[in-house]
# Entry
Amino acid sequence: MTDGTVTGTFGEVKDAKWHTVTFEVTVEKGQAGKDIQNTASVTSGNTPPDEPTTNVEIYPRDPKLTSEKSAVLQKKSRR
# Structure
């Protein structure tokens, strides 16, 4: 990855099968409930370029977290 761009190269493709680039990302905090636009740029010497785009929904959409903690002193320590 360079400057936020993931690059995959397949070399010479001689078939009509799907070829896939798979990657994982860490979403920065503060993105919950937002969508991130993911655009691929596909180029080749013998096909027209394509830029398929999809929106990725970040979950949880509306996070509401609560936490509770309690403690009970079982035995007083001796010094």
The radius of gyration is 24 Å.
